[in-house]
């Protein structure tokens, strides 16, 4: 559930509000989550008050990261609310070079586009911005011999452009896991590699290793199917 700590009460709770910590929260208030973008699919939110008490929880037994993976099919079919963040896990099929970007105010940023695949073979476009783009670019630069890269983008937002879905990081709220030593990635990779071994074809290995990285030149001139001019001339207009 999304939780809010007003700025005026932050000094009291600052020492408790650390990423990956588990808390017991006593006497908060519960209200409607009316934000335009909801970081979790819950219509309520918790709010800290001056009388709220927070304690570190030493024996939390729930999900450590709280992943709630969305299926790529549900994204394609637009069955997910657009104002709620989602979690996605996939194997990197293709990754394009990092690019410099600029905003209307002149601020300089980074962008990296990639394509990930789920265990059913469905693909999802992903766009990483700024620190998340730099994080993935740094990993790929320092691990050039890595042949299978699985990522999780947690708390990402889905945007549609020309009827194609793109999974983007949500400001600085998102988390990006790259081949991390966590159960979700290890289980995904084990199932994926098992499927590749069963297929045992060269096409199953396409996109791994050095061929993960690509450029717009490759996308246009290599990865596209082209027609001959003569074929185009034979196209007939149907009224």
What does this 3D model show about the protein?
This protein starts with a strand and ends in a 6-residue tail after the last helix. The protein folds into 2 domains: 2-56, no CATH class; 72-221, OB fold (Dihydrolipoamide Acetyltransferase, E2P), CATH 2.40.50. The protein is of the alpha+beta class and 239 residues long. It is globular and about 55 Å long. It contains 6 helices and 13 strands.
Q: By helix and strand content, what is the structural category?
A: alpha+beta
Order of helices and strands: EHEEEEHEEEEHEEEHEHH
Helix content range = 10-25%
Give the strand tally.
Answer: 13
Strand count, sense and barrel status of the largest sheet are: 5 strands, mixed, barrel
Segments where pLDDT lies below 50 for 5+ residues?
201-211
Give average pLDDT, whole number. 83
- Separate helix tally: 6
What is the general shape? Answer: globular
CATH architecture of the largest domain: Beta Barrel
Alpha-carbon distance between the termini? 55 Å
Major sheet: order of its strands?
6-8-9-11-10
Number of domains: 2
Radius of gyration: 22 Å
CATH superfamily of the largest domain: Nucleic acid-binding proteins
Estimate what percentage of residues fall within beta strands: 25-35%
CATH topology category name of the largest domain: OB fold (Dihydrolipoamide Acetyltransferase, E2P)
CATH class of the largest domain: Mainly Beta
